[in-house]
Design brief:
mainly alpha; 58 residues
Amino acid sequence: MSIPNDPVILLSYINTQLRDFYPSLAELCQSLNLEAKTLKEKLASIDYFYNEEQNQFK
């Protein structure tokens, strides 16, 4: 499965996955074979950062 490349679409996709299927970013990354650091950097490029308490990028 490939994830969206556009950061805005990626944001929506990742937050939906976190909300509906994964209790943490670590579990999402492990399941989808993603690097958390790369994902965080890509979303930071549009000023969104992972909030562990809320389990979403804000």
